[in-house]
């Protein structure tokens, strides 16, 4: 993970349009509305989305996200029959499949790009960081995404305390445990390479749930793009994945509204996106349900070894500290024994 010095972050004010940024379409030379400015690293200004607007869009399209934000426990079985406020088109519905339901809305946020919603139920421990790893880590992503050529977090934001202060309402929105600007580039295929610049993060909730979120940066943020040849821009207008614990695992509700760019019709791109997300969930299922000797099992044992080493280190430090105190006391006692002038302070006749 990169680290930088002297960047600034800008919080934008509430906005009700399609973009999550109030400065959408403006020149980068025009000052954007600023509520909070914070130096992070590199002399680069990073604009955060309006979190209230962003999370409202997520919970409107995702009943599971709303369920979690309202402080409830449980997965899909805990949702009420009237929890869906939008009119979805059912694409697939098969309880025996890894992705047991797929729905679509042709237009969302006044954008004529389909919003897709995937539902899956996974057995195993809910570890949001691992699911995020499948998407963010290039080597891990290549295991399920053949089209990915480049995938990196170009500007991680490490001051999570400041970010959480900006987000506010931790009880409803959870605690942000990771946030940053990421860059993704696809390979040449039947269409030319695409690139994306997304700001995304991870929220963790007291009820054990995790929510990943992301939205495309606007054109005025292109100064954040890494150096190199530019490609046709694809845009994820909305991304979110809510993971909620169940009795024997966890449920995932995954939202994606992505314009592939280049004027390719939606009826051609939607099947490809559906196929890619299915592969992500197949990979997720194999990972979390692998059992003894699996990647997850080895990862958990590695974490346990690390925790044990940290505990031993802490014990050693405490022993050394106690020993040092005892040595100092012994030296002081010896000094007092040698200095007869101090004896009356301790031994009165």
The sequence of SSEs as H and E is EEEHHEEEHHEHHEEEEEEHHH
Q: What helical percentage do the residues reach?
A: 25-40%
What integer value in Å does the Rg equal?
A: 26 Å
Structural class by sheet pairing and helices: alpha+beta
- Proportion of strand residues: 25-35%
* Overall average pLDDT: 83
Q: Let me know the number of strands.
A: 13
Sequence stretches where pLDDT stays below 50 over 5 or more residues: 1-7, 11-17, 24-37, 340-349
Distance between the termini: 70 Å
Coarse morphology:
globular
Largest beta-sheet characterization = 10 strands, mixed
The number of helical segments is 9
What does this structure look like?
By secondary structure, the protein is an alpha+beta fold. It contains 9 helices and 13 strands. Helix content is 33%, strand content 29%. Strands 4, 5, 6, 7, 8, 9, 10, 11, 12 and 13 form a 10-stranded mixed β-sheet that branches. Strand 9 (194-204) and strand 10 (210-216) form a beta hairpin. Helix 1 (51-61) packs across helix 2 (63-69).
Briefly characterize the structure.
The protein has 349 residues and is α+β, with helices and mostly antiparallel strands.
Salient structural properties:
single chain, 349 residues, alpha+beta, ten-stranded mixed sheet, three-stranded mixed sheet, 13 strands, 33% helix, globular, disordered N terminus, disordered C terminus
Q: Strands, helices and their partners?
A:
Elements: E1 6-11, E2 37-39, E3 42-48, H1 51-61, H2 63-69, E4 89-93, E5 99-105, E6 115-123, H3 128-136, H4 138-141, E7 148-156, H5 160-167, H6 170-173, E8 175-186, E9 194-204, E10 210-216, E11 232-233, E12 235-245, E13 249-259, H7 266-288, H8 295-338, H9 343-346
Parallel strand pairs: 1-3, 9-11
Antiparallel strand pairs: 1-2, 4-5, 5-6, 6-13, 7-8, 8-9, 9-10, 10-12, 12-13
């Amino acid at each position: 993970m990169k680290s930088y010095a002297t960047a600034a972050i800008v919080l934008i004010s509430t906005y009700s349009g399609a973009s999550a940024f109030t400065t959408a379409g403006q020149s980068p030379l025009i000052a954007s509305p600023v509520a909070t400015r914070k130096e992070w690293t590199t002399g680069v200004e990073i604009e955060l989305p309006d979190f209230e607007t962003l999370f409202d869009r997520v919970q409107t399209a995702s009943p599971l996200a709303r369920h979690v934000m309202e402080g409830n426990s449980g997965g899909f079985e805990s949702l009420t029959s009237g929890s869906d406020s939008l009119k979805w088109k059912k694409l697939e519905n098969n309880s025996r499949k890894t992705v047991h339901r797929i729905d679509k809305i042709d237009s969302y946020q006044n954008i004529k790009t389909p919003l897709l919603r995937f539902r899956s139920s996974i057995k195993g421990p809910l570890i949001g960081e691992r699911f995020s790893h499948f998407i963010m880590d290039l080597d891990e992503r290549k295991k399920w995404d053949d089209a990915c050529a480049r995938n990196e977090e170009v500007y991680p934001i490490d001051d999570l305390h400041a970010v959480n202060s900006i987000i506010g309402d931790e009880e409803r929105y959870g605690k942000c445990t990771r946030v940053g600007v990421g860059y993704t580039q696809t390979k040449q295929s039947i269409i030319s390479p695409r690139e994306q610049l997304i700001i995304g993060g991870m929220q963790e909730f007291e009820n054990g749930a995790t929510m990943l979120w992301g939205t495309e940066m606007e054109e005025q943020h292109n100064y954040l793009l890494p150096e190199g040849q530019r490609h046709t821009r694809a845009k994820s207008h909305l991304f979110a994945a809510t993971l909620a614990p169940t009795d024997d695992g966890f449920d995932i509700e995954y939202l994606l509204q992505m314009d592939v760019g280049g004027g390719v019709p939606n009826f051609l791109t939607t099947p490809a996106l559906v196929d890619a997300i299915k592969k992500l969930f197949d990979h997720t299922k194999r990972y979390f349900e692998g059992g003894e000797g699996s990647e997850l099992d080895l990862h958990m044992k590695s974490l346990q070894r690390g925790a044990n080493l940290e505990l031993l280190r802490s014990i050693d430090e405490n022993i050394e500290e106690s020993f040092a105190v005892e040595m100092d006391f012994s030296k002081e006692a010896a000094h007092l024994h040698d200095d007869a002038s101090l004896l009356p302070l301790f031994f009165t006749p």
